[in-house]
Amino acid sequence: MGRQILVVEDDDGIALPLVRTLSREGYEVLRVAEGRAAIEQATAGEVELVVLDLGLPDMDGLDVCRRLRDLGYDGGIVILTARDGELDRVVGLDVGADDYIAKPFALAELLARLRALLRRSSSRPISAEPGANAPAAASATPLTVDPASRRAHAGDREVQLSTKEFDLLAQLDRHRGAVVTREQLMDEVWDENWFGSTKTLDVTMARLRQKLDDAGADVRITTIRGVGFRLDEGRADA
């Protein structure tokens, strides 16, 4: 069975060709046309990547994205939109999207972006509500980061991270104990030509901190106000 992609798009003229193309590429493709159905489907099990339209009939796609991240969905999310302007792009990334592509788009470009996300991202089945079946707090354990496999472990337990979360952690780990500037992180993890709000960095960093803490990793991310961040040994509450 191929890797599972969820297409959330109410326009048949866009959704049907996309579903056919993805199926020909060997993916298992699910398609829904509404936001609530997307949330149910993505949180039900094996969806590894969501292709999400913003203009859905029942709720805004940004709210769908935010809800998926709030529920703990760790797969890739690519936003599709016909909206113009930097603001929508920034907001989309702030609420947890990994990538953003404007309509009309070339299928070849979209496929390339999806392949890149699937190579880098990891996902896991999650509970239907936040906190349900949440793991018990773990004792502090050493953090190891393997850029080759794109996996991070606290002891023998894998820390489930989204694409951007892992990229941030890998950059901090590469310079463990030293300050990495905000500009360096934006250039390496997002785009050296990024001119939008850097709030997306703070939002993603907050999620990363929480996941490391939940996993019991014996590290802490220290904010150096006005400069950047540093990955230090020892938990913040130690």
From TrEMBL:
PROSITE patterns in alphabetical order: OMPR_PHOB, RESPONSE_REGULATORY
Origin superkingdom: Bacteria
Limits of the Response regulatory domain: 4-118
UniProt biased composition (Low complexity): 125-142
Keyword set includes Secreted: no
Keywords: DNA-binding, Phosphoprotein, Two-component regulatory system
Stated name of the protein: Response regulator transcription factor
Modified residues (4-aspartylphosphate): 53
Organism: Agromyces indicus
Domain OmpR/PhoB-type: 135-233
Keyword DNA-binding: yes
